Structures are given as C-alpha cells and as structure tokens.
Amino acid sequence: MKSLPQTYTHAHTLEIQRKRHSQGHTATIATQNSYLATQKRALDVAVAILLVTGVLSWLTPLLYILIRLDSKGPLFFVQQRTGRGGKVFNCYKFRTMRVNAECDEKQAVIKDARITRLGRFLRASHIDELPQLINVLLDDMSLVGPRPHMITHDEIFGDVVPGYSRRHDVKPGITGLAQAWGYHGPTPDYRSIANRTRLDLFYTQKASLGLDLRIMFRTVFVRSVNHLPIFRPSDEA
C-alpha cells in the first residue's frame, strides 16, 4: 500500500491540530459562559448576603453617626455608573467627601480638600465601597469585575483607550484584577488607565471561579503580606 505524500500528511496533521485548538477554545468559552451565567451569580449572592448581615448590619448605623458628626450631608454617596452592556445604574458608597457640585465630574486626587477626615480612613481601607454589596444583590454589580468609572470619565477613556468599551462585556465589580494588581485611586495619565484597561480586558476573557477567588484573596490580604505568590496575567495569557 502506497504511503500518502508527505506534504499531504503534513497538511492533514496541521488541519487536525487546528481543529483541536478550535475545539479547545470553544470549550473554554463555553465553560466561561457557564460560569458567568450561573456559578458567578450564586457566589455573588451568597457572599453579599453573608457580608450584609454580618458586617453592614452593624457597621452602617455606626458610620451613620460618625459620618454625620464629621460633616453635613447624607450617609451614602450615590453616583450613576456604567454597567454591563452599557446599562446605567446607581452605585452606592459611604460618603467620604463634603457635599460639593463637582462630585460627578472631578475625580478625587491625593490630598483632595473635599475629602473629610473620616473619609480618608474609609477610602484608604476601602470600607467606603462596602455599600456596593447592595448593588451586587440588585444584580448591577459583581464581587469581581472591572471597576465602574463615573460616566463622564467612561466617555473620555472610551475615546482614547483602544478596546475600553469591552470592559462592559461583564458586570462591574467591587474589586477587580486591576485593583488586585495594585491599581487604586486616581487615573492621572494615559498609562494608568491603559494599564487598568489591559488587565480588565484580560479578566473579561479569562473570568473563572479560580481567578475570582484569587482576586478576592489578594484584595483582602495583599496589604499584610508583602511577598505573597500571586497570579500574574502572563501566566494564563
């Protein structure tokens, strides 16, 4: 029996490898979609209920007193943010600034005079973000995902950062890969928002239960462990 020409055999092998790679990629996407559709939501609701009942239930009345003593104004700061698919929602935070007319346009900066004394502590500890657990229960946000920016900044960043709008392919999060990687606070230049976006887009493509757990673990413990082995985007790119 004659053997097949070598060129045909090589081409046939390449075609098999291509199909296997395509099938593997399709399976990865299917697994990710399954996680985003069911498991991720279940994790969000379970953890949010646990933290709302175990932490916010007593912390909220305490902070109501402290925030009102520190400055005049409401307990919560509510601002419209962009969610999954471009849907606009009300994002909740404990108020850390004095009431001002620039809050929906001017980003907070280091040593911002608008931030109250208590507000500095709440921001540094990220306790001000805890009311977003309510957003998680309302299905506007997830525990993990790209951090939502104010709408005016979304419009600016979308014009200058390639692929920025793809951050909205998933629900925004209380924490995200960019935050676990050390990107917090102001975005003073193009590089800072471009790097955050790069990590956010990586997350939208690689979201999984394991990645979410690593991000949450690093978010909580990175401040007390300086040399913790951590996930690096290049490890799973």
Which strands sit side by side, in order, in the main sheet?
A: 1-2
CA radius of gyration is 22 Å
Helix content: 40-55%
Mean pLDDT: 83
Can you write the helix and strand succession as a string?
Answer: HEEHHEHEHHH
Question: Would you tell me the structural class of the helices and strands?
Answer: mainly alpha
* Sheet with most strands: 2 strands, antiparallel
Amount of beta strand: 5-15%
Q: Overall 3D geometry?
A: globular
Query: What's the N-to-C terminus distance?
Result: 45 Å
Return the domain count.
1
As an assembly, this protein is single chain
Unreliable sequence segments: 1-5, 7-17, 19-28, 223-232
Number of strands: 4
Please tally the helical runs, counting DSSP H or I stretches of 4 or more residues: 7
Structure description:
The structure is a single chain. The protein has 237 residues and is mostly helical. The protein has one domain (41-223). The protein is built from seven helices and four strands, in the order H-E-E-H-H-E-H-E-H-H-H. The protein has helices at 6-70, 117-125, 132-137, 151-160, 177-180, 190-206, 209-221; strands spanning 76-82, 88-94, 142-144, 173-175. It has a two-stranded antiparallel sheet. It is globular, with a radius of gyration of 22 Å. The protein starts with 5 loop residues before the first helix and ends in a 16-residue tail after the last helix. 25% of the residues are buried.
